[in-house]
Amino acid sequence: MLRAEPADGRRTARLEHADRGARGTRVPARRRHRLPVEPAHRRSRPRRRRRTRRRAVTRLRPRTAVLATLVLLAVLVVAVVLGAADLGWQRVLGEIWAQLTGGMSPLSEREAAIVWQLRVPRVLLAALVGAALAVAGATFQGVFRNPLADPYLLGSSAGAGMAATLVVVLAPAATGWVQPAAFAGALGGVWLSWLLGRSAGSGTATLLLAGVAVGAFLAAVQTFAQQLNTETIRQVYTWMLGGFAVSGWHEVLTALPYIALAALVLCVVARPLDVLALGDAEATSLGMRPGLIRAVVLAAASLATAAAVSVSGLIGFVGIVVPHLVRLLAGGAHRVLLPLSLAGGAVFLVVADQVARTVLPGELPLGVVTAFTGAPFFVAVLRSSRGKAT
């Protein structure tokens, strides 16, 4: 018990007693009700934090696929309707509807030839090339785990440029051999990079360095060939800047089988690509063969790139811009990224080609238009990836 003390002493004793109770000393029953008691529902259930992250999208949703398809179809129709020759959008749509239903066409024979022999093949070729470059760029970025990787990383562009230059310099009259030579040169550059990379090691970093070395060597050979005949420099640079000078369906039918086969293979192996992102050890523990998967993926992406380069020349930035835009909108899972990159690349290059052939009285090189669009985006990606590289 507390002894009676003066007023100030009594107050000091009470404070000492309260302090001992706060430290764990037994508190009298008459004062227990004064201590704050936490409710039972708060003691039994821990607090749940509100989720702020969005769930990762790992599969392509039907609604997203339908929306991407509708956007692509709308862009294709608009690109066919618009052109240097003003045919009237109602009449062009009437011509398309007449061909689909077998009705009467509102266009003359010459105007119908402009639509079906010039505009439609060019628009479809631009869509094929854009889809091929975009899906190849997304694949290379996934395999090398580098956001700045593009389809020309393993020497395909240098090989195609060297082969096309040799044909122009050595056989100027054989213009029909430029496309087959560019196709073979692109595949040959990738093959040399693969052989050199495998001979030096088995990692992706070694393969990347091999691609840089092979590209530099083939570019040097191309420059030497140009110096042998300086009169062909303008023709070579016109091809290298990219574009679609089509007058029929030959280019479309030439590139379609290779691009379709490559796109099918890449979409099938999209799930193993997601597993490879976790590392080779994790993929091996799941029963996969990382080396074989990587070889198949790079071969399919290189095939698509070679087919695109052979019919369009060198068009840059498509394989960087489109995959990053798709990642921002739909996530980075390859089962979502690769199909949407196909549609996004087609839309991007069709719009760029439309700008190239209509913004000025004379047609702009397509590579210039994509560079104007892609260079600022490339700088933004470079700045955002700073500090993430290991």
Automatic annotation (TrEMBL):
This is Iron ABC transporter permease. It is a multi-pass membrane protein. Residues 42-56 have a biased composition (Basic residues). Residues 1-22 have a biased composition (Basic and acidic residues). Belongs to the binding-protein-dependent transport system permease family. FecCD subfamily. Keywords: Cell membrane, Membrane, Transmembrane, Transmembrane helix, Transport. It is found in: Cell membrane. It comes from the Bacteria. The keyword Transmembrane helix applies. The lineage of its organism: Bacteria, Bacillati, Actinomycetota, Actinomycetes, Pseudonocardiales. PANTHER family: ABC TRANSPORTER PERMEASE PROTEIN MJ0876-RELATED, FERRIC ENTEROBACTIN TRANSPORT SYSTEM PERMEASE PROTEIN. Residues 1-56 are annotated as: Disordered. Gene3D superfamilies: ABC transporter involved in vitamin B12 uptake, BtuC. The chain crosses the membrane at residues 64-85, 123-140, 152-171, 177-196, 208-228, 248-270, 291-320, 332-352, 364-382.
